[in-house]
Task: inverse folding
C-alpha cells in the first residue's frame, strides 16, 4: 500500500533550482532580472557612447532657449521670443483642446448612432451600420487629410462673400453666403465664428507665467454654484420621496437654478456676440478657427464616434430583455425604462471601453502633424526637435507627457467607473 | 332528438388583411410604426436622396482616359454640358503602379506579386487547418491569381513555370497530406524576404538555418540536461550562429554558388506593398509576443509580472507616432555605434511591439474570462504550466478574444499609414501627396482618397468578416 511519505530532508542541492518547482520560479525571475539589467545596461552604454561620439550631452537646458518660431493657434500668450518650454506648453494646450472637443462630439455622435443602430426602423438601422463600417475600416489619417483638403480647397475665398452695389442693383447674390443667420463664414483661410464679448468684463490678473481671466472664472464659479444647488434640490426631493412616497415637482426649480444665475451674470457683464464681418480682403471681428483644428476635431469625432457607437450598442444589447420586460410589467414607460433600468446597467458595460476610446482619441491627436496642426507633437517633437537637434531629450519628454496624460485620464475614468460599478458584497 | 351541426372539414385559412401581410406589413412595422419612426424614416430617405443626388452625376461622368485633370474636366464638360462635374479616374490609371508598388522597379513587379500570392498559400494551412476542401479552394485561387497577375506584369517565363509548379505541388499535397503544408508556412518568411528585397539567396537560407541549429542543439542536449536548460542552450547557440557565423557562411556560399536576385532598396518600397509588408509582419510577430506578455502579466512571479505590466502600460500610453519616431531618430542612439539597419525593419519592430502590447491586454481579457475551474482542472490533471496553457487555457482564452484580436489587427493595418511620418511612402499620405503635387493632376482630391480608402476598406472589412466566420465556426457553447 502506498503511503504518503514526508519530503526527504536531504538538504538543498543546486540542481533543485532548475528541477524543483518550489525553487524554479526564483531561478526564472533571477534569470529574467539579470537579462533585463544586462539589456538596460547595454542600451545605456550604447547611448552614452553615441552621445559622446556626437559631442552631445544629455540635459534639458535647451528648453530655456529662445524658440523663435510662431504657432498659429495659441490658447496661452506666446510669441516667437518665448522659450521652447513655453512653446511646449502651447503645444500641450493645443493637444488637450482638440482631445477635449473631440471627446465631447464623438460621445454625442456615438451615442446617437449607437442607439439609432438598434432602432426598429430598418432604414435608419442600415444607414448607421453603413456609417460605422465605413468609418471603422478606413484609416483615421484619411479622414483627417480629406476633411482638411475639403475645408481648405473647396470652400470659397473671403472675396466670394462680397456683396457690391452693382450686385444689389442687378439683384444677384454673392457666390458664397454665411451660415447660421450670417454669423459663421467658412472660407479657405479658416472658419470665422462669432466671439463672445463682455462690455463690462471683470478684466484679468497677471500671475507672471499666465493671465487669469476673471470673467471666465466668475462664469465657472456661478455655474458650479448652480450645479451644487441643483444637486441639493434633487437630494431633498429624493429625501421627501423616501419619507412620504410623493416626489415633489422639481423640474422648474432645476431649470431656474441652473440657467437664471448665469443669464443674470451675462446680462450684468454686458454679454454680446461679435459677428465676423467682411472688411477689405478678409473677415474681421469674431474668432478665426484655423482649418487644421477644425479638420482634426471633425475627423477625430467622426472616426471615434463609429467605435463609440459599437460600444453603446453592445452595452445596451448586453442587458437582458427580461429587464425591460420587467420594467414594462411594472408600468414604466419606455423613456423611464431607459433612464432608470437599462442605462444604469448598460453604463457598467459601456464605460471601460469608452475610457480606452477617449485615450485613443487623445493619442490620435498626434496625427495633427499631417495637417500642420501644432500640437505637442508639432512643437516639442517637431520644430523644437529639429531646431535644437536634441532627439533624445525631446522624444523622452514627449513620451513622458503623453504617458502622464493617458495615465491620468484612465485613473480619472476608473474612479468614475468604480463609482457606477455594481457594489457586490 | 337534438340536431347539432359540426363542421367536419377545416375551412381553408384566409389570407390576413392587406395591412398585415407582404410589403405593407413590413413597411408598417419597420418604417412607419410610430410618429417618431416616421420622422426617422423621412430623415433617412432625405439623407440618402441628398447623398445620391449630389454624387451620382459625379460618378456617372467618370473619365478613364485622360492625361491631366484639365483634360478630364474638358471631356466631362464636352459630354455632360457646361458646369458638370465628374470623377477623373484617369489619375488612377496613370498612377496605380505607385499606389500599389511605390517606386519598386516595374520589371521586378512579379516579385511582390509572387510574395503576395504565396502569402495566402502560407496562411491557408493556418486559417483552414486540415480542411482539404477549403485549402484546395484557396490554393486554386492563388494559382489563378498568380497566372493572371504574372501574365499582366510580364514576368519572365522561368518564374511563371516555377510558380505554377510550386502551386501545383502544394495542391497535390493538400489532397494527400494537408498537414505537411505547414512546412511551407514555416519557410515562407525567408522566401518572402528574399523575393521582396532580393540579394543573395543564401542570406535567408543561412538565417533560417539558425532555427535548425536551435532545434539540433535542443534535441541533442535535452536527454542530458533536461528540457528548459536545453532550450536555453539552443537559443544561445542560435544567437551565436546569427551573430558570428551568419555573415562569413553567406559570403562563402555566395562565392561558391553565386545566385541571387537584383537587390531592392527599402526606399523603393511604397504604396500598398509597404502597408501589407509592415501589416502582415507586424500581425504575425505580435500575436506570439502578445500571448507571452499576457501570460507574463497573469504570472505569479513578481519580477516577470512587473516587467510585463511596465512594458504594456508604457507602449499603450504613448501614441504610435512617437514610437515610429523612436524607430527613425532614437534607435541610432540605443544601438552600438556604427549599427545601421533598415528603416522598414526598424518600423516593423516598433509596430510589432505596439500591437503586441494591445494584444496582450485583449488576451488578458480572454484569460480573465475563463472560469477558475478550468485552471483548477488543469492543475488537477497534473499538467505542468506550459502544457496547461497550451492544451486547456489558451485555446479557450484565444477563442473568447478572437473579435478583439482581429480588431487589433485591423487597427494595426490601418496604422501602417502612419509610416508616412518617418519618410516612408505609404499609400495614403506618401503616394497621394506625390500624385497631388504632380503638375498634371494638381487640384485632384476625391479620387485618390476614394481609391486608397476603398482598398483599405476591402481589406479591413474582409478581416472583420473572417473573424465573424471564425467565431461562428469555433462556437462550441450551447446558448
Result:
Amino acid at each position: 500500500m502506498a503511503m504518503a511519505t514526508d519530503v526527504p530532508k536531504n538538504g538543498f542541492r543546486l540542481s533543485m533550482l532548475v528541477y524543483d518547482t518550489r525553487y524554479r520560479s526564483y531561478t526564472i525571475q533571477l534569470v529574467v532580472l539579470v537579462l533585463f539589467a544586462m539589456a538596460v545596461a547595454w542600451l545605456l552604454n550604447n547611448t552614452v557612447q553615441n552621445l559622446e561620439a556626437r559631442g552631445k550631452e544629455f540635459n534639458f537646458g535647451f528648453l530655456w532657449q529662445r524658440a523663435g518660431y510662431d504657432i498659429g493657434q495659441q490658447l496661452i500668450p506666446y510669441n516667437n521670443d518665448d522659450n521652447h518650454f513655453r512653446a511646449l506648453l502651447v503645444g500641450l494646450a493645443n493637444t488637450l483642446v482638440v482631445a477635449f472637443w473631440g471627446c465631447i462630439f464623438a460621445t454625442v455622435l456615438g451615442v446617437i448612432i449607437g442607439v439609432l443602430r438598434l432602432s426598429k426602423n430598418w432604414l435608419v438601422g442600415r444607414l448607421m451600420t453603413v456609417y460605422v463600417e465605413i468609418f471603422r475600416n478606413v484609416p483615421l489619417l484619411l479622414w483627417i487629410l480629406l476633411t482638411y483638403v475639403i475645408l481648405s480647397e473647396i470652400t470659397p475665398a473671403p472675396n466670394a462673400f462680397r456683396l457690391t452695389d452693382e450686385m444689389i442693383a442687378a439683384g444677384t447674390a454673392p457666390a458664397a453666403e454665411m451660415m447660421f443667420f450670417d454669423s459663421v463664414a467658412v472660407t479657405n483661410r479658416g472658419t470665422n465664428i462669432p466671439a463672445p464679448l463682455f462690455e463690462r468684463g471683470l478684466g484679468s490678473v497677471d500671475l507672471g507665467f499666465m493671465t487669469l481671466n476673471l470673467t471666465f472664472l466668475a462664469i465657472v464659479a456661478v455655474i458650479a454654484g448652480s450645479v451644487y444647488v441643483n444637486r441639493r434640490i434633487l437630494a431633498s426631493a429624493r429625501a421627501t420621496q423616501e419619507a412620504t412616497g410623493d416626489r415633489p415637482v422639481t423640474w422648474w426649480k432645476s431649470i431656474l437654478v441652473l440657467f437664471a444665475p448665469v443669464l443674470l451674470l451675462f446680462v450684468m457683464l454686458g454679454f454680446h456676440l461679435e459677428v465676423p464681418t467682411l472688411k477689405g480682403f478678409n473677415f474681421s471681428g469674431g474668432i478665426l478657427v484655423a482649418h487644421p483644428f477644425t479638420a482634426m476635431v471633425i475627423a477625430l469625432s467622426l472616426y471615434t464616434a463609429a467605435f463609440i457607437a459599437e460600444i453603446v450598442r453592445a452595452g445596451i444589447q448586453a442587458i437582458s430583455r427580461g429587464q425591460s420586460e420587467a420594467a414594462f410589467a411594472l408600468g414604466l414607460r419606455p423613456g423611464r425604462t431607459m433612464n432608470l433600468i437599462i442605462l444604469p446597467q448598460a453604463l457598467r458595460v459601456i464605460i471601460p471601453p469608452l475610457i480606452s476610446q477617449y485615450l485613443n482619441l487623445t493619442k490620435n491627436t498626434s496625427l495633427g502633424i499631417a495637417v500642420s496642426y501644432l500640437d505637442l507633437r508639432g512643437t516639442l517633437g517637431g520644430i523644437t526637435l529639429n531646431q535644437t537637434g536634441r532627439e533624445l531629450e525631446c522624444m523622452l519628454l514627449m513620451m513622458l507627457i503623453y504617458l502622464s496624460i493617458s495615465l491620468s485620464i484612465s485613473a480619472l475614468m476608473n474612479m468614475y467607473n468604480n463609482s457606477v460599478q455594481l457594489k457586490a458584497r | 332528438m337534438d340536431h347539432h351541426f359540426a363542421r367536419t372539414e377545416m375551412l381553408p385559412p384566409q389570407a390576413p388583411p392587406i395591412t398585415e401581410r407582404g410589403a405593407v406589413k413590413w413597411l408598417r412595422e419597420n418604417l412607419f410604426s410610430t410618429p417618431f419612426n416616421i420622422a426617422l424614416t423621412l430623415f433617412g430617405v432625405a439623407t440618402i436622396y441628398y447623398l445620391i443626388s449630389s454624387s451620382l452625376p459625379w460618378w456617372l461622368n467618370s473619365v478613364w482616359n485622360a492625361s491631366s485633370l484639365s483634360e478630364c474636366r474638358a471631356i466631362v464638360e464636352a459630354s455632360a454640358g457646361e458646369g458638370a462635374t465628374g470623377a477623373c479616374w484617369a489619375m488612377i490609371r496613370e498612377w496605380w503602379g505607385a499606389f500599389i508598388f511605390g517606386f519598386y522597379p516595374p520589371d521586378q513587379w512579379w516579385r511582390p506579386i509572387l510574395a503576395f500570392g504565396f502569402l495566402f498559400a502560407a496562411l491557408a494551412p493556418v486559417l483552414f487547418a486540415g480542411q482539404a476542401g477549403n485549402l484546395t479552394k484557396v490554393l486554386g485561387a492563388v494559382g489563378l491569381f498568380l497566372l493572371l497577375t504574372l501574365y499582366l506584369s510580364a514576368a519572365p517565363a522561368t518564374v511563371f513555370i516555377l510558380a505554377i509548379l510550386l502551386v501545383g505541388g502544394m495542391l497535390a499535397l493538400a489532397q494527400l497530406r494537408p498537414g505537411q503544408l505547414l512546412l511551407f508556412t514555416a519557410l515562407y518568411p525567408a522566401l518572402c524576404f528574399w523575393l521582396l528585397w532580393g540579394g543573395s539567396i543564401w542570406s535567408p537560407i543561412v538565417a533560417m538555418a539558425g532555427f535548425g541549429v536551435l532545434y539540433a542543439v535542443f534535441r541533442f542536449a535535452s536527454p542530458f540536461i533536461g528540457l528548459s536548460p536545453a532550450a536555453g542552450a539552443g537559443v544561445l547557440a542560435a544567437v551565436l550562429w546569427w551573430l558570428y557565423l551568419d555573415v562569413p557562411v553567406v559570403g562563402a556560399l555566395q562565392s561558391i554558388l553565386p545566385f541571387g536576385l537584383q537587390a531592392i532598396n527599402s526606399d523603393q518600397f511604397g504604396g500598398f506593398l509597404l502597408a501589407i509588408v509592415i501589416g502582415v509582419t507586424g500581425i504575425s510577430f505580435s500575436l506570439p509576443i502578445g500571448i507571452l506578455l499576457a501570460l507574463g502579466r497573469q504570472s505569479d512571479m513578481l519580477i516577470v509580472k512587473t516587467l510585463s505590466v511596465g512594458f504594456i502600460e508604457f507602449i499603450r500610453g504613448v501614441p504610435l507616432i512617437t514610437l515610429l519616431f523612436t524607430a527613425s531618430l532614437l534607435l541610432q542612439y540605443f544601438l552600438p555605434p556604427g549599427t545601421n539597419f533598415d528603416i522598414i525593419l526598424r518600423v516593423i519592430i516598433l509596430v510589432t511591439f505596439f500591437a503586441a502590447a494591445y494584444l496582450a491586454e485583449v488576451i488578458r481579457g480572454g484569460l480573465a474570462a475563463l472560469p477558475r475551474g478550468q485552471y483548477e482542472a488543469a492543475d488537477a490533471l497534473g499538467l505542468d504550466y506550459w502544457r496547461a496553457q497550451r492544451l486547456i487555457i489558451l485555446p479557450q482564452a484565444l477563442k473568447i478574444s478572437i473579435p478583439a484580436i482581429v480588431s487589433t489587427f485591423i487597427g494595426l493595418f490601418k496604422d501602417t499609414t502612419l509610416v508616412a511620418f518617418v519618410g516612408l511612402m505609404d499609400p495614403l499620405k506618401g503616394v497621394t501627396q506625390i500624385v497631388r503635387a504632380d503638375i498634371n493632376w494638381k487640384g485632384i482630391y476625391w479620387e485618390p482618397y476614394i481609391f486608397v480608402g476603398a482598398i483599405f476598406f476591402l481589406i479591413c472589412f474582409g478581416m472583420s468578416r473572417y473573424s465573424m466566420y471564425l467565431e461562428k465556426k469555433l462556437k462550441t457553447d450551447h446558448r
Summary: The longest helix of chain A spans residues 84-117. Strands of chain A lie at 185-187, 190-193, 195-198, 204-206, 211-213, 271-274, 277-279, 282-284, 287-289. The radius of gyration of chain A is 30 Å. The longest strand of chain A covers residues 190-193.
